[in-house]
Amino acid sequence: MLAITRSAAKTSLLTTNGATHTLLDDGYLRDQVGALFPQGLDRALKLVGTTTLRDTLACLKPGGLGCMTGILSES
User: Could you please report the per-residue DSSP string of 31-45?
Assistant: First the structure.
């Protein structure tokens, strides 16, 4: 399981709780994810925010499934 966070302090917590890979979100996930998963992701669960949704969806392989649940703003 790949977990992505914007806080470097949370990466060890994510690994402790089952993430096999953790990435620090720099706004350009596609390159980071592509280095680990060249074919793209099968599935992506986006928990909050619409500002990074396009970047998350760009990480999916063709036919991959993306799900967004939650919005913190009115955007």
Answer: HHHHHH-TT-EEEEE
